[in-house]
Amino acid sequence: TIFSDNFEDGDLAGWSLSSDPGANDWTNSNTDPGEGLRHAQTQPLDTTNPASVMERIVSTSGYANIVFSYNRKLVGLDAADEFQAKYNTGSGWVAVEQISSVDDASYVYKTFSMPASANNNVNFQIKFECTAGAVSEFCRVDNVTIVGDAIVSDTNPPNVTINLPTSINY
Hints:
The protein has strands at 3-5, 16-19, 27-29, 39-42, 52-57, 63-75, 82-88, 93-99, 108-113, 125-131, 138-150.
């Protein structure tokens, strides 16, 4: 595990938050978490896309085969609303999930294998965006993880000494 946030610490430390003027930011909430007692949630009350954004830089330095996963619950989103999960490896944002018109009965687990450009990348970024205008519409995210395989790069040859049999020339 390179990075994990289940939001149980009670805050959104390390996340960059931004929102459209007049829209609500993401918050750490204890209302209907996926697991544990807390999760990240936004109720933007704004249909300007994107209304509320939560993003983070996660260094994948020393790792390959990167996988980005999270649990999400979208409540009451209609055609004018949208949820997006994105990543950026340095060449611009790419959406791994873009969805509108959904009302999840429970949390949905999502997992995505990242491209090779996410490997060994000190500036790998993830982002969640939510646009929803009504007081009954929410985007909720829990258990965000980034995992990968450690890159092993041992280029030193072993130093070998043969003790037996004794090296003798005849």
